[in-house]
């Protein structure tokens, strides 16, 4: 586990928390697509945030679960992790 | 307000996922042959509980029927519902391309008694083992008895009127009646029915409080309604979804009208008040006949509720006699659910599926494990009986007091 949340980890969490399989490479390419287009609904994103909070033992920013795209989400959570480090 | 040409509600597709078959064909074959699949309960975490016999579905592989996203987000009872809906839509020859072309003309209505017990238990175990932060967000919807309607409509892209009926076991029939009303009001196609998955440890423990539950160990003796040895009912999982369609819409697209939903009435007589259910069930039958404009003598077969509790069986036999008069002791009665158990709200929908198939094939399926009937009924036991069937009556009662009756008429066109 790195101190940064990678596209790989997000891909793994999307599968675990929401049952949506998008390979890391594809997720990288589609990082500006909406989560809805990737098949992740609001509960799915909430589940991903919950998993991250349990893994890293720290709260994620309240706006994380409202992120529209993977890029926006990763910037937000990694910004918070960096600030908390 | 009466219309000159009311829209009749037809059954054009049947999808079954049941303990005796995970396709409509295998369900019908097994039902017609009277093969009982009741067996010792084997579901993990249930083996040590006082419920010994159940109707388990052992041949259903969820990942082969449902996409991973929907598997993760929903409970087993919704897996059954989505799979049965797919089978029903295939059977009705309504591919995705057709429903995508007019999504507002397709709605969904389901009934469920217990909701997603297995999913709920898993998440509650997370809560008590690890804490509230480990409960997944899909718990908020997956356990809910309304989940299947929403997930079917999301998964298939339906945007027509949707609904959920919560009225006990009889809710299965009430959901079909609700679909028929939606069709009469102008919706072309309703995907309607009920599925249940009550065989997880938490759910089984909840049922142990029902005094009507059979705890007999021998699968051949655990569920024998209408006999002196009646000792309660055996629970089951699975269910059926039907495509209920405007007869005009079916004819326009050349789909066979398998049967029509001709009449329905629901009544309520109170939880476990079986003696009083006589009056409620008789009134439901009378109302369904009235709506169907059907004389008692026109009923060719009755699919009984068949609870398997002596007082309830007596009330049902008397209700049939009260409502059908002398015809009540002559009309063939059957309860094929003794082969698979009672799937709560799903049980009467499976009976409707069997009734449509029985009318098509001219065969009344038997009531397995039942001999020596101790009521004044012509119960079809041992083996199937050939009969020309035009009209069927399906009965259902719930443990919480709902009673319901549905009259089905055979379709004008025979199935291929």
Structure described in brief:
Chain A has 85 residues and is mainly α.
Structure report:
The complex is a heterodimer of chains A (85) and B (416). Chain A is built from five helices and no strands. Chain A is mainly α and 85 residues long. Chain A has one domain (7-84): Non-ribosomal Peptide Synthetase Peptidyl Carrier Protein, Chain A. In chain A, helix 1 (7-18) crosses helix 4. The model of chain A has no long low-confidence stretch (mean pLDDT 92). Chain B is of the alpha/beta class and 416 residues long. Chain B has two domains: 9-252, Thiolase/Chalcone synthase (Peroxisomal Thiolase, Chain A, domain 1), CATH 3.40.47; 261-410, Thiolase/Chalcone synthase (Peroxisomal Thiolase, Chain A, domain 1). Chain B contains 14 helices and 15 strands. In chain B, helix 1 (24-33) crosses helix 14 (346-361), helix 4 (76-91) packs across helix 8 (147-156) and helix 12 runs parallel beside helix 13 (310-324). The longest helix of chain B has 19 residues, at 274-292. Classes of the chains: A mainly alpha (85), B alpha/beta (416). The A-B interface holds A 15, 17-21, 39, 43-44, 46-47, 50, 53-54 and B 67-73, 133-134, 136-138, 140-141.
């Amino acid at each position: 586990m790195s101190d940064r949340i990678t596209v790989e980890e997000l891909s793994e969490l999307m599968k675990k928390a929401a049952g949506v399989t998008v390979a890391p490479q594809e997720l990288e390419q589609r990082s500006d697509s909406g989560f809805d287009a990737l098949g992740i609904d609001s509960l799915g994103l909430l589940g991903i945030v919950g998993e991250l909070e349990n893994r890293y033992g720290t709260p994620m920013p309240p706006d994380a679960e409202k992120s529209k795209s993977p890029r926006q989400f990763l910037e937000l959570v990694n910004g918070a992790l960096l600030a908390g480090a | 307000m009466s219309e000159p040409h009311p829209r009749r509600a037809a059954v054009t597709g049947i999808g079954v996922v049941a303990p005796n078959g995970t396709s409509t064909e295998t369900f019908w074959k097994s039902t017609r042959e009277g093969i009982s699949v009741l067996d010792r309960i084997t579901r993990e975490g249930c083996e040590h509980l006082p419920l010994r016999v159940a109707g388990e579905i052992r041949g259903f592989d969820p990942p082969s029927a449902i996409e991973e996203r929907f598997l993760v987000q929903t409970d087993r009872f919704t897996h059954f519902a989505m799979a049965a809906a797919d089978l029903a839509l295939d059977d009705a020859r309504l591919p995705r391309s057709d429903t995508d072309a007019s999504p507002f003309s397709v709605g969904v209505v389901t009934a469920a008694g217990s909701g997603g017990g297995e999913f709920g238990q898993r998440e509650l175990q997370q809560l008590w083992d690890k804490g509230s932060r480990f409960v997944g967000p899909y718990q908020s919807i997956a356990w809910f008895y309304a989940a299947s309607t929403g997930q079917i409509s999301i998964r298939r892209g339906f945007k027509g009127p949707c609904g959920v009926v919560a009225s006990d076991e009889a809710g299965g029939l009430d959901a079909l009646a609700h679909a028929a009303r939606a069709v009469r009001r102008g919706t072309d196609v309703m995907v309607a029915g009920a599925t249940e998955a009550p065989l997880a440890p938490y759910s089984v423990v909840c049922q142990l409080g029902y005094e009507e539950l059979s705890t007999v160990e021998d699968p051949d003796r655990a569920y024998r309604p209408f006999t002196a040895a009646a000792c309660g009912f055996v629970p089951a999982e699975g269910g059926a979804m039907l495509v209920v369609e405007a007869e005009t819409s079916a004819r326009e697209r050349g789909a066979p009208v398998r049967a029509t939903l001709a009449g329905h009435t629901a009544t309520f007589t109170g939880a476990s008040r079986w003696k009083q259910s006589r009056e409620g069930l008789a009134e439901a039958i009378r109302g369904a006949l009235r709506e169907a404009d059907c004389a008692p003598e026109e009923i060719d077969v009755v699919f009984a509720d068949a609870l398997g509790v002596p007082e309830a069986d007596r009330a049902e036999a008397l209700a049939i006699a009260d409502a059908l008069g002398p015809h009540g002791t002559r009309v063939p009665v059957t309860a094929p659910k003794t082969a698979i158990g009672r799937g709560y709200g799903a049980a009467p929908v499976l009976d409707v599926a069997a009734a449509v198939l029985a009318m098509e094939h001219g065969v009344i399926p038997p009531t397995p494990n039942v001999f020596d009937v101790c009521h004044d009924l012509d119960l079809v036991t041992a083996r199937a009986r050939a009969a020309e069937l035009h009209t069927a009556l399906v009965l259902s009662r719930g443990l919480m007091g709902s009673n319901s009756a549905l009259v089905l008429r055979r379709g004008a066109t025979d199935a291929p």
